[in-house]
Amino acid sequence: MHREITKGVYYVGVDDHHTELFENLWSLPFGVSYNSYLIVDEKIAVVEGVKGPWTEEWLNNIREIVDPSKIDYIIVNHMEPDHTSSLPEFAKIAPNATMVYTPKASPMQKSFYDVPLKEMIVEDLEELKLGSKTLKFVHAPFLHWPETMMTYIVEDEILLSCDAFGSFGALNGKHFDDEFDLRLVEKESRRYVSAIITSYFKFVQRALAKVTELGIGIKVIAPSHGPIYRNNPMWIVGKYNEWTSPELEKYCTIVYGTMYGYSHRLAIKLKKELLELGVEVKLHNVSYSDMSAIITDSVRASVLVVGTPTYDAYPYPKVWSFVNEVQGKRFPVDTVALFGTFGWGGGGVKKLQKMFTDMKKEILEPIIRVKARASEEESQQIKELAKTIAGRIK
Ligand SMILES: Cc1cc2nc3c(=O)[nH]c(=O)nc-3n(C[C@H](O)[C@H](O)[C@H](O)COP(=O)(O)O)c2cc1C
Ligand SMILES: [Fe+2]
Ligand SMILES: [Fe+2]
Q: pLDDT tens, 115-154?
């Protein structure tokens, strides 16, 4: 099924209700869409492909408008296989098409697929005339891969923004921001940004500044996942700006693991003390919360508290794996606090302490280590830690 965006520009993407985890990591309770855009002019261009198994459905969407073998250009904004694993099949159907991408995308394409199509390498701000419509290519490195660009349809003022401004969630026949409940879109796009782009917040900010400096009009933002913004494109720009801003948010997030409830008791004690001091608290038990939800709620917290039982002399595996995300995603969080419990020799909190020290995060005192049940003195330490945290957030 296709949808006209404006004269000569069509949505021809597909919904994926099959993949359970995006990148085999992030849950997709509402599915995801692989957006693709067809531009019909004297020359025919398609911007973005889809994930391999959806190739036939994508080509059929195109067939509703033109014969895909007539396509002159396939514009690849970004080489990640969720948009490009359809390329080998596409090359068989549209053997005269030229692939258009950035210099860095070229060796990537060859190493991923090496399809037998001509290629056209475009520099930053280079233009390609299709007839009455002109495409302008805006390089956007590390959004979220090194070779990424956006494609701008000059006359229609449509920005095909690649993964930037994208969202999880299938479209289900709705395509535009004015057809969705934006509260759900807000949740799913923030989770998307936090899961996919957290390591590259700076590059989102750079791309936003670049598009602003170009001074181009933007009537429509059409990302490669999620809704197309035609009613209020600045809504999603504002949200992305906010979600990637280096300024941290004024709350404390507690992320902890527990097997038999001892660490859990510390977590809720700390939460209670913080609430009494007027601190906003978000709390996640790593065994119950989805990792993408934990990341969304912790990535920009003023203070991140991590709690763990000791498990075979190490942190609880799921806590350990969260802390790996903190490191790998280069969380902008700069202040952390730690607590944990142990049964005999301990080691969980010590290893977390080392990891956060290596990440150059400030670790607030006291660091709380409890042998199973908290004593009166240790409960006092929790009160003390809550006060320190409150002092940092206020
Ligand atoms: C599978 C397993 C492995 C553990 N390994 C250690 C360990 O290596 N060192 C230690 O001091 N305690 C170890 N413990 C004890 C726990 O750290 C301790 O009981 C802790 O208080 C449990 O907290 P929880 O109830 O929040 O899970 C282990 C417990 C379990 C169940
Ligand atoms: Fe991507
Ligand atoms: Fe993508």
A: 999 999 999 999 999 999 999 999 999 988 999 999 999 9
Q: Out of 1.25.40.10, 3.40.50.360, 3.40.50.620, 3.30.70.1050, select the CATH number for domain 249-389.
A: 3.40.50.360
Q: Does residue 268 have a pLDDT over 90?
A: yes
Structure tokens at 277: 């001091």
* Contact by Cβ (8 Å): 12, 59: no
- Give one word for 363, left, alpha or beta, with left for phi > 0 and alpha for psi -120 to 50: beta
Residue of 366, 387, 320, 374 whose CA lies nearest to 342: 374
Question: Comparing 199 with 80, which gets the higher pLDDT?
Answer: 80
> What gap in Å lies between CA 366 and CA 77, rounded to an integer?
49
Q: Which of 256, 258, 259 to mutate to test the pocket of ligand 1 (most atoms within 8 A of CB)?
A: 259
Mean pLDDT, rounded, for 363-367: 98
The pocket of ion ligand 3, defined by CB under 5 A, consists of 82, 163
For residue 345, the ligand 1 atom closest to its alpha carbon is 11
Whole-prediction pTM: 0.92
- Please give the distance, rounded to the nearest whole angstrom, from the Cα atom of residue 80 to the centre of ligand 2: 5
